[in-house]
């Protein structure tokens, strides 16, 4: 089976000169974590992620994570996005098989794979959040087998800025927050959505830091919760449309939870499932 059958139906494909702010807003609007940058020939020249954008505007200072100075923030957001993208991008032929595409993405630890034709023009984009829909109905493992149980927590009263620091320093995109007896998630997507809001962005550009000193509970979302009885097929369908790209998992029998199950966990599970069927 060709991988292109599972390509993203609404990928973010933009010219290299588009501003960082425009890319961020399009990612938030389309609920995507990656964008593909193309040249005038429609050939992929880079891939930019929501993490790349966050790393561009938040820096590690002597006293921890900080937003760049107000004057620099405006310039960065106006800069062409290719300055912060990963390039040259890893690409694959449009006729690559599903098995080879998944293996490539897992091996290179990437969540987005542009597909090109014989003229190197972009013809499709594989995004891990939608590629995981290829997980078969009867996979060998369930959500409790592949969830991460050693999760990173943050208190609801922690500042938004501190939470960004935890995510960027740990190389993760989301944190668990316990708020009023229920579990919630905060991710880099929610952070960027908050930062580029007109009112908040205006204050940040004027040099105010108060918006980022707000408690992180302000930008948390209530995620989908699954149990061991769910199939990976069911979970993959949920994750594809969850704003955070993850679900919380509870193992009632084993008295474990919450665990976190992400699109990357499911991509690895798909890879292992496909490899097992080759034997």
UniProtKB/TrEMBL annotation:
PROSITE patterns per the record? CBS (PS51371)
| Gene3D superfamilies, alphabetized | CBS-domain
Q: Does the keyword tRNA-binding apply?
A: no
UniProt keyword list: CBS domain
UniProt keyword Isomerase, yes or no: no
User: Which CDD domains has this protein been placed in?
Assistant: CBS_pair_SF
Q: Where is the CBS domain?
A: 7-67, 85-146
Transmembrane ranges, per UniProt, are none
Quote the PANTHER family the UniProt record gives: CBS DOMAIN-CONTAINING PROTEIN, CBS DOMAIN-CONTAINING PROTEIN CBSX3, MITOCHONDRIAL
Query: What is the name of this protein?
Result: CBS domain-containing protein
Q: What is the lineage of its organism?
A: Archaea, Thermoproteota, Thermoprotei, Fervidicoccales, Fervidicoccaceae
């Amino acid at each position: 089976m060709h991988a292109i059958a599972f390509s993203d139906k609404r990928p973010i494909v933009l010219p290299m000169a588009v501003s960082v702010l425009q890319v961020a807003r399009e990612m938030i609007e389309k609920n995507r974590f990656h964008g593909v940058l193309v040249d005038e020939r429609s050939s992929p020249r880079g891939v930019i992620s929501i993490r790349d954008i966050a790393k561009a505007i938040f820096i590690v200072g002597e006293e921890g994570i900080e937003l760049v100075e107000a004057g620099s923030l405006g310039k960065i957001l106006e800069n062409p996005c290719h300055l912060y993208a990963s390039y040259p991008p890893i690409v694959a032929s449009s006729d690559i098989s599903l098995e080879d595409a998944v293996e490539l993405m897992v091996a290179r630890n990437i969540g987005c794979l542009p597909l090109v034709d014989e003229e190197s023009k972009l013809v499709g984009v594989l995004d891990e959040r939608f590629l995981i829909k290829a997980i078969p109905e009867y996979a060998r493992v369930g959500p409790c087998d592949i969830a991460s149980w050693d999760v990173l927590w943050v208190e609801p009263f922690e500042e938004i800025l501190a939470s960004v620091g935890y995510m960027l320093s740990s190389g993760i995109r989301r944190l668990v927050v316990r708020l009023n007896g229920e579990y919630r998630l905060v991710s880099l997507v929610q952070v960027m959505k908050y930062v580029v809001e007109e009112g908040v962005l205006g204050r940040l550009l004027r040099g105010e830091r108060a918006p980022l000193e707000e408690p992180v509970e302000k930008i948390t979302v209530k995620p989908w919760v699954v149990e061991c009885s769910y199939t990976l097929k069911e979970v993959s369908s949920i994750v594809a449309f969850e704003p955070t790209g993850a679900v919380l998992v509870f193992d009632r029998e084993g008295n474990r939870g919450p665990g976190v199950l992400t699109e990357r966990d499911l991509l690895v599970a798909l890879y292992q499932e496909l490899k097992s069927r080759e034997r």
